[in-house]
Batch of 2 targets.
Target 1
Amino acid sequence: MQLSFQNSSVIYFKILYIGIISFIALNSQAQNLSAAQIKTGLIFKFTQNLKWNLTKSPDSFQIFIIGEDRELVYELDKLSKLKKINNLSISVQKLKHLDNVVAPFPQILIVGQEYNFNIKQIYRKIASSNCLLITTNCRENQYVMINFTEDKQKVNFEVNRITLFGQKIDVSTKLVLLGGKDIDLFDLYHDLEKKLDSAQQNLKHQQQFLEEQSFELEKRKREINESKKDVVLLQSQIMQQKDNLKKLTTSISVQELILNQKMDLLNIQKMAIIKQENEIDKQRKAISDQKEILDSQLKDIYQNKKIIEQQIETLTSQTDTIKNQKSTIHISIIIIVIFAVLILTIFYLFRNKQKINNRLNEKNIEVLQQKHRIEKQAEALNLTNNELQTSQEEIKNQSEILKKMNFDLSSQTSILQEKNKQINASLRYAQTIQNAILPPKKHKGKTYEYFVIYKPREIVSGDFFWFSEIYDNNTKNIFASVIDCTGHGVPGAFMAMIGNRILNETILEKKIYDPSDILETMHTVVKTTLKQDESNNTDGMDMSIIRAVKQNKITKITFSGAKQTFYILKKKTGEVLRIRGDVKAIGGIYYDHVQFTSKTFELELGDIVFLLSDGIIDQNGESKKRFGSLNLIALIKELHTISFDLQQAYIESYLKGYMKSIEQRDDITLMAIKF
């Protein structure tokens, strides 16, 4: 046991080492073991003589290593595959930097000799965390727990009980008595070698299986190569579809206009047909009434005809009687008295017959008049029937025309639905391509974090956002940009693809890092690419871009904008700074005399910056009033009291409540970055 005393204004006793520098006298059977193998065996023995006072049972026993001792990593990894500690599987992980030592800490942290100058910093990080610190040849005695003392011939270790007690790790007295006989490293590694041989046999079987899988993989590769040709052909067809997309959209718009006109005409014709059907119903009712009147009149005429026939029979009978009387007069002419009587009788009968004939003539005249009236009514009825038949034929013809127009309309609707289905499929594929070129919509790192609200008005968008980290002279530069291209939908998406390619070329290939120079270069290349000096093309884009360099707690930001505004939310005061960009846009034929300018700001820890297109500001609510810049500034001020993780959901909810049932009028993009 080694004790260390130190005198100051108050003399206190501090035990630097409670533990005995134990010399591991490796016996002849262990002389061939390397230092890494000896350390691995000792570490395994340490775990059997130490007790971690953990409040929660872990899923595995974790060992982290910082340093360049690759053999030790290999031996520990081999041990983890064949052994368990406290019935827990062993997890071995190598860390690249000291910054990777963060909570939750492992049960054992092994620090290489090259990091001994950082031992104080490491010790303070893991203080009171139940983490065992194992070092090599470290002389900072007050910070070590278990320290290997290694030279060319042997490996020893020393234990500091005070630091272990501070880590809430109980030390068995057997630990300080460990020697070569107790450890028996050779038996440990002999057991490991047996298990390793078994693992190697399994590995051979796995290799044989992998060879079989490799053969299948080669076969699949050949199939994939064959499929690539089909993919190239499909891509060519997709490009052709994109070329025809605009023409097809125009054609569909024209067809929709024609269909709307035909629908209006059909509605007018339907109203006319309904009106004619009402008139026909009225005529049918009038004809039905006339038929009833005619039937009644014909019945009266038939009865009158029967009466007249009876009168004619009576007159015929009377005529026969008169003839018989005449014969009797001629026979009885001798008798004058009888003759005179007969003459008087004949005169009387003649007068009666004349009266009857007059009455009969009057009846005949009435019958002829009634017949004439019936004939006129029949002619009117025939005329009405002819008109009704003509109207029915017209209605039938119009119904046939209407059926044909409905069939044509149904066919054109089916064609339009199929074309719309094809267009939507093409647009969905274009959306997949557009999303593939965009950076992630959310990121959380140590030095900054950001989120993006990205809401295209249609399937594809004329807005896009850009983000990149670039190291220049060992300095990390953070670039962020929001770009609003002319138009939306398919035309805007094509402009967005062009803008994204030019921005990548400007920053990543040409290595232009000043924001104002980036905008000037973008402006020149867009005009050249779209040949705007030779044509009437005025398409372009509005954009804002920042370059951020973080030094300690201060972040220096350089901003340049093309017809876009930049906002800063100060964490300490809740103040919102509004910085306008230049009036010149990217591309187009205007404002060539205007030069883009840069503005520089210093942000403190926790400040948030906002880059956005004009989609939010120009959005209407139910009152037909724009959201506006003042409303946006008020919204950003409200975010001062809300954690950054909840700000995206708050903004989206606020915007949805403002829009309610009103449709989105433009693409919406907002990027918020917290430094």
Target 2
Amino acid sequence: MPIKIGISPKIILSIATLYNDVNRIFMEYIDNSLDSAEDLYSVEENSYKRPVEIALIIQGRDFRGGQVQIIDNCIGITNFSKVVQSIGFSDKKVKAQPWINGQFGYGIYSFLACCEKLEITSKLQKEDALYIPINRDQFEAERQEDVVFPDPKKVRKFDFESGTKVCLSNFDKTCWRQVDIVELKSEIEKHFELLLARKNLSIKLIKKDDSIFNQDEEIICKSFDYGQYDGEVWEDYAETLSFSWGKKNPVRTTIKPRKPIHVYIKITTGKEINKRPVFISKGRRIGEIKDIKSFKSSHKSDLWDHPNVTGYVDLSDFLDPTIARNDFRNNNNSKALYNYLIEIEPLILDEIKNVNKKAEERHYQELEDKLNEALSKLARIDSMMYRTDYISGDKVNLEKNGIGKHIDEESGGKDHGKDRDGSRSGKGVGDSLGDGKGIDNGFGGLPGGDKGGDNALNKEASNPFEDTGFKGQEKRKSGFNIRIVDREPDIDNETKKPIRSSLIGNEITIFKQHTDFQDRVDVSRKREAKITQRLITYLAGEITVHYKDKFHNKNGQPEYNKKLFIDLVSFVYEFEKMLKDLSGKNLADLNS
């Protein structure tokens, strides 16, 4: 007996416009396959009783001959007539007929949004396979009674003992261009995230190669592994939900879901993973929480859209999706669920704050390492430049208390090349100089060493933060250390104002809470600190002041002249050059 549809064909075509992404259309048919296997699933073991295999196969070079097939070895369709006719309601809750999509039974007709033809072949165990074609042009009829499908035909051959094969063909040109195996993998892994974690389930994508090489591309879809990222987890199982209604005399309504609402939120440390928390209903993703319009939250930006926050809210069957499956129907259940989420938001935000603080401390330590490395190199260059200037006859007064002072430890000086007793056993700056190399042909030259050039950066060189001792004694190398501390700045005893930085011993301390520092850090709405060029200049200036002060206190005070300021500014410029690659970077990206 011919099969008739149960709704106006024009309405069916109109509903098809909801599908503006061809990948979501394929999700509907994979969804139906998974529903068909539900009777084989064991909740206790989180496994199917036998291997369940679903394959999506892309074949063809262009939209005219292209096909997409979805094949499974599940239970099969028990009633073809109901599948075709049941639009507007669904038997999905009835286990005898699980193939009809969602609560509307529309999934079978989603093909109308992308192609001309749908063919369904399905087989129940120990029965013949049945086949039925459905064409888009049939829905151009004016009246419901004019749309009639023939009786399903028997087919002898089928790949499995039971299962279903869906074939979509005669694609619209623009839709065929969207068919991409990599994007499909991403969409499936997002859409069926929790279901893919079940044992004995395989969802495979195959792109057929029609060339003479016959090299098919094959991809296996996998569940998302939250454990691969470091971070903190906030988790809850809500067994009761409630909300209040009424303004004058509020009434509290409490609802107990059939299954607890599982909230799993992970705040990652390190790199952003850009996988926002999602709502999951009946094992299927509905959408990212930040995009659900019916959920009115004041923390969609700083919580649900935070680049380091991921996870899901598993609703089981507590809420009913809208027909577009991108939101939920407004009822008491949704009010209770949303009220619960708003109540727990401060708890999750506290956890985000703690994780962010720990991460920021680590990221600033990485910035400290970059600053220390740059200053170490620049100090060696500056030390050599200072000695070269002195030897070449620049007027630098190294008198201290009327006693002449020169630079020891193979660094040369006024009597370079001589030891203190006047002999020439020592080495001066003029000895063993290699090719030398400056930074961007800029600030001075480097001692060449045996291999010259860059190798010299690793050579010992006198800098104001190293205690060289006397000739013949072992060096007591203390080095220097730059620290960016997250506390209120110290107060200057004279000016009574907060200081930007300080030098104690060999440690330069920069106060991050100083307003001048904070004004130079670009913080986005997601609280991700970014290094600006202004901050680089600020850091270079603060460090240079303490470095030069230490330098001249150790090596002797030069006469006051314009060259002092030129030297100071030149050092800042060279420091900026060394740090230029940091400009515009997020703190979190410094270790990449």
